[in-house]
Amino acid sequence: MVPTSDEIALHDALRPGPIHHLGIVVPDIAAAVAQYLALGFTGGAVTRVAEQNADIAALRAGDSWIEILSPIEHDSPIGRFLDSRGSGVHHVAYLVDDLPAVLDHLAAAGVELIDRQPRRGLHDWLIAFVHPRACAGVLTELVDRASVE
Question: Does the global pTM surpass 0.90?
Answer without folding.
Answer: no
